[in-house]
Amino acid sequence: MSWAAAIVIIVAIWGLVSIMRSRHNSTLGYGTDEKGNPVVQPQRERELQAEIAQLRERLEVLERIATDTNSDEWRESKRLSAEINSLRGQD
After folding, report:
1. What is the dihedral of CA 50, 53, 55, 61, to 10 degrees?
2. How does pLDDT run across 24-55, given as a tens digit for each residue?
3. Do 53 and 16 share a structural domain?
4. Residues 15, 51: one domain?
5. 27 and 2 share a domain?
6. pTM value?
């Protein structure tokens, strides 16, 4: 095999990998910037932000259930509430 044939094969493999990567990124909803790095599309970003907001609402409901003060273990629920608040401050 000559050097020219080896270079042609390497360039062909690189082109095929580049096409496959672009196709894969487009199916995931990613675009690319000037340097070719994947970037999240604005629509996908909005969807992810909405999902995060829903998860936070669910977490608040679960915290309210876990720290319900009408139970017999009022002190335990207060301790749990304080622990949750301290963990929230560690973000």
Report:
1. -140
2. 877 877 777 778 777 767 777 788 899 999 99
3. no
4. no
5. yes
6. 0.39
